[in-house]
Structure prediction request, 329 residues.
Amino acid sequence: MFIAQGFKSKGNAFWKYIVGSVIVIAASTIGQFPLMIAIAVKSIEENKDFPTDQAAMLTFLDSNLTLFLMLISFAFALLALFFVLKFLHRQRFIEVTTSRPKMDWKRFFFAFGLWTAITVIMTVAAYFVSPQDYEVNFQPVPFAILAIIGIALIPIQTSTEEYVFRGYLMQGFALLSKNKWFPLLMTSVIFGLLHIFNPEVEKMGYIIMIYYIGTGLFLGVLALMDEGIELSLGFHAANNLIGGLLVTSDWTVFQTHSILKDHSEPAAGFDVLLPVFIIFPILLFIFSKKYQWKNWKEKLTGTIPDNLTTDDTYHSNQFDKNDGEAHIL
Prediction:
């Protein structure tokens, strides 16, 4: 089983996940230096005060440059995670990706395509329902630069988060608790709390944490039910990339030269609850039918045997030779 891949590494222990997390956080912090340096250089050159809050930092430089420099830190973190797994945990990177022998790209692109289609449809519908709330922000050259940056780096950002939470920490908490519900809950709460300093929280209030924690739960359920993070990787990449290309606003964490700019006053309400309580359950239903998920209670809340062998972690997957897709039995 995917969540128990950490049990396969001889001598693995929970304290190593604490050390590994510190290393990844340190690498991410180092990766933020280019942004800080660029802001400092501009503040000196233009004799401006150095911005002291996140909102000011996000608007101090050109939005494309800011986005590029923000995303660099995730590349540092992902590289650090690779070395942590290799040298501290003695694990292969594929073991925090999937319980299948190799990455299932069909799963990734199905989730990416599905959520891309839904995002485009919802954005177009919102524009036609309330056109007064939107400004057409499209500028060919800045948008082209945004697209290049986004396609190159946003998947790195989203993949880093998925590998850390739905892969690395999920397996670490499983090693600690010997069950599945605790890793699912802990990674979802931590994932949500890490967004607490986003500008959206300041604008909309703490109720938006329902969305962030709920999204973490949704992505965690995908990983546990599907025995890998391919679906989570695809969904998360589509959510950030397509969302960033389509719509921006003055108060979101990503400031972009997107096609539309939302001028409406943010308010937490049905928009926060709709994804968590309606859209995400529908997506889970679609995925469950396509990939024939079974034994929900066991996969989400069951215990993990102490005497796992290498073969045990793969026993729940069987590949269809005709289409290469894994069906959970």
Observations:
- The chain has one domain: 2-328.
- The radius of gyration is 21 Å.
